[in-house]
Amino acid sequence: MKTINIVLFGVGNVGSSLINQILESRSKIFNSSQIDIKLAVIVNSKIAFYNKDDINNSWEADFKSYGYPYKLSQIINHVKKEKLTNLIAVDATASEKFVKNYKELIRNGFNIVAANKTANSLSDKFYKDLRLELKKHDKQFLYETNVGAGLPVIKTVQDLHLAGEEITKIRGIFSGSLSYIFNSFSSNNRTFSEVLDEARNKGLTEPDPRIDLSGKDVGRKLLILAREINIIKELTEVKIENLVPNHLNGKSSISHFNENQQELNLNFEERRSNLKADEVLRHIGELGVASGQLEVKLVTEKRNSPFGSLQEADASFEIYTKNYGNRPIVIQGAGAGARVTSRGVLSDLLKISEKLECI
Ligand SMILES: NC(=O)c1ccc[n+]([C@@H]2O[C@H](COP(=O)([O-])OP(=O)(O)OC[C@H]3O[C@@H](n4cnc5c(N)ncnc54)[C@H](OP(=O)(O)O)[C@@H]3O)[C@@H](O)[C@H]2O)c1
């Protein structure tokens, strides 16, 4: 039997869903793999809840009632004092500040699973230093949900690359929220602003939808895939079409954007009116290996093409390689959502567990 001890950083949509899925699946996992998953500490940006007993369905109330302000060093001291082993830190934050703690966590015995894309999309120096630290301390870092949420995109790219298969191009609808927005906008006559509100009300966009519309999130995912196949780039080198006009961008407040988002309508309606009957708008990311170009843009696709016929908030990835020729490997399905993402995180946790000691 193996016990793994998790410290969960981030108890938002993904973190909460992960706790609930662990509660739902724990006995099944134990019966099939003899792995006992313990949630040792649960942390948000302000408080930490040290879980002495086994976590149960009242975790949310316990977290609020018994959580208290913390420093990272106190969490590290706690796991040492309790002699917890097989440690895995889960990063379910979106924080750039938090990833600066990874090295300290690794030095103190933690493996890492991240839904947060930041560590893999900061500078090339940070990316390489992190991997050196992992190697030095013989620790693992998995982040399958960084691209395509629960879809096995990173693993597929890694396996192809490891086997020496030459990847020539990756092209995809990387963002579930932008997929939903342009699938809806292209196939009816509603204004862009109405469609954006609908996507926001369904919880598909970030609370600030400019994070989606700016294309930066897709740019990050593209960079993460590029780095998997040894293309050395920085985020600033990704060519990104920003769909937010300058005067409504991140330098102005979110309420200013919300009050004025109708100003986006004119541009998008013009683009829609230029479409032929068999065409739709799609938001894509494209990585050309030969050109070394990474590009995020809004394009016109044939309605009956693979991307043109996507539904709802589906993501779709086409991986072109030398041996697969012009018939790419296609990975498609729900590309966003807390439940599919947390299932991907849980799967990463179990993969790491396979290599940990039986205790
Ligand atoms: N939702 C998806 O479909 C999806 C798919 C793939 C990847 N992801 C990634 O998953 C991550 C989590 O997404 P989410 O939707 O769950 O976000 P969220 O609802 O905003 O939750 C973020 C959580 O992180 C906590 N946090 C922020 N800074 C922290 C810090 N320095 N230390 C500890 N905790 C901190 C927040 O605490 P407070 O409440 O105290 O601020 C909150 O509990 C993001 O990186 C996102 O990009 C999401």
From TrEMBL:
A Pfam family it matches: NAD_binding_3
Pathway(s) where this gene product acts: Amino-acid biosynthesis; L-methionine biosynthesis via de novo pathway; L-homoserine from L-aspartate: step 3/3; Amino-acid biosynthesis; L-threonine biosynthesis; L-threonine from L-aspartate: step 3/5
Residues the record lists as binding NADPH: T93, K117
Domain Homoserine dehydrogenase catalytic: 152-350
InterPro entries: Asp/hSer_DH_NAD-bd, Bifunc_Aspkin/hSer_DH, HDH_cat, HDH_CS, HDH_short, NAD(P)-bd_dom_sf
Annotated catalysed reactions: L-homoserine + NAD(+) = L-aspartate 4-semialdehyde + NADH + H(+); L-homoserine + NADP(+) = L-aspartate 4-semialdehyde + NADPH + H(+)
GO biological process: homoserine biosynthetic process; lysine biosynthetic process via diaminopimelate; methionine biosynthetic process; threonine biosynthetic process
Residues the record lists as binding L-homoserine: E206
UniProt keyword annotations, A-Z: Amino-acid biosynthesis, Methionine biosynthesis, NADP, Oxidoreductase, Threonine biosynthesis
Cofactor: a metal cation
Residue ranges constituting the Aspartate/homoserine dehydrogenase NAD-binding domain according to the UniProt record: 10-144
Top-level taxon of origin: Bacteria
Active-site residues, as the UniProt record annotates them: K221
EC annotation from Swiss-Prot or TrEMBL: 1.1.1.3
Chain positions recorded as NADP(+) binding sites: G10, V11, G12, N13, V14, G15
GO MF assignments: homoserine dehydrogenase activity; NADP binding
Family statement: Belongs to the homoserine dehydrogenase family.
Protein name per its UniProtKB record: Homoserine dehydrogenase
